[in-house]
Amino acid sequence: MKLLDFVASEAILVDLEAAGKEEAIREIVASLCQAGRLNVADQESVSRAILNREQLGSTGIGQGVAVPHTRHPTVDRLVATVALSRGGVEFAALDNEPVYILFLLISPPNQPGDHLRALENISRHLKDERFVSFLRQAKTRENVVELLEEYDQAAL
Amino acid sequence: MTHDPSSFSRQVEITNALGLHLRTAAKFEESARRFRADVRVLFNGCEYNGKSIMSLLTMAAEKGAILTIEAKGDDARDAVEALAELVIAKFHEIDEELGAEESAP
Fold this sequence. Notes:
heterodimer
């Protein structure tokens, strides 16, 4: 599985406005709707589900990264995107640091394997300091897509 | 072969439906960090750091995966037993039935 197999490039955000967790999640879900990857009718329900998941424990996994996610019947395949924050989002992360990179994932309820493989892919890349540094420096959606393409190629 | 009393390992199977996803990996890391011992997880011929959620997530261990939990240090045995119990107890999570939405009448 490659990053661009599940990351919706048209929904990538390189300058999140939100500074708080709820607003950030809503902003990213709205971007997926605008990109046509989610039904607008499900926007609230998906945002709620992701926020409810955060109640069980923050998906801010440290090093400035969060992976907010949910399983939701509105999708029949994994839908995800990336958002970057310049000022940092307060995410109650495990290391209590603000979050600058968010990978938001929505998985079909009955495909836990794909969800695990997406988490595997994201974590593998985020362990690479150069990848994280390049990603944080990306200024445009195209910059992010080029970087993901480059790392997808390297992983072959 | 000499037995090293400070090294201990145990095999355990992932039995919860969703596998080692983020929340369960976070619980594993949190438990592992309570011990002084170095904790490693062996799976599919690779070795992972039991005290790093990032490392644990790169296992993509699904239900049915057989992991070997290995610890080295003075509390290695306690660490391995506690972590194996956590996995066996399905990480103390309500095991969500897959596809429950679809099968509902």
